[in-house]
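Design a sequence for this backbone.
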């Protein structure tokens, strides 16, 4: 990656389908979804990495800076804005990867391709279907953090900026692992155990 990239992992949900926060659901290799996402971002050269987490959650072993959400049930866009407010205090980065924790199968190569794509934002596309993560230019992230660019969803913000589609050969970008069954299906499709 030619530019300095920060990361925001959205991991503050209650994870009712997992029986607890998705951030701490386990992959077959023993890592949590949060650890897998943080590891992928680190391999891609992303630093710093912040994760929005449920209040009281412990992320000490995950290589992230935790931002506890103030209340359960916070809307996703509010979680994005809260995490970005924390990140904009750091001056080192030019772009930010926004990765939902239920996309732990995204590859580091995809993160690098998105970060290098330029534009106000970049979205991966696998076989014509958009997925995650989304990469935002610093100006867009600062606009969200300051409330100048407001949702109610990130999709609405993306409609107001220049977005680049980045074709990737990475089924992880469309593998929404939001339940144990979805995770098992995505792992099976990827040929992982």
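Sequence:
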């Amino acid at each position: 990656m030619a530019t300095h990239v920060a990361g925001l992992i959205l991991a503050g949900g209650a994870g009712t389908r997992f029986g607890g926060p998705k951030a701490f659901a386990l992959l077959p290799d023993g890592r949590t979804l949060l650890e897998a996402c943080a590891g992928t971002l680190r391999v891609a050269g992303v630093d710093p990495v912040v994760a929005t987490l449920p209040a009281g959650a412990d992320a000490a072993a995950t290589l992230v800076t935790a931002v506890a959400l103030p209340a359960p049930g916070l809307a996703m866009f509010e979680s994005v804005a809260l995490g970005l407010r924390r990140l904009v205090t750091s001056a080192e980065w030019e772009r930010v990867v926004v990765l939902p924790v239920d996309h732990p199968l995204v590859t580091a190569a995809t993160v690098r391709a998105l970060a290098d794509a330029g534009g106000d934002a970049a979205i991966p596309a696998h076989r014509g279907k958009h997925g995650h993560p989304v990469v935002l230019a610093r100006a867009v992230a600062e606009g969200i953090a300051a409330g100048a660019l407001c949702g109610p969803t990130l999709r609405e913000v993306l409609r107001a900026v220049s977005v680049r589609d980045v074709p990737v050969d990475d089924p992880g970008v469309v593998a929404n692992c939001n339940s144990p069954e979805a995770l098992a299906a995505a792992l099976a499709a990827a040929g992982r155990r």
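The chain has one domain: 5-189.
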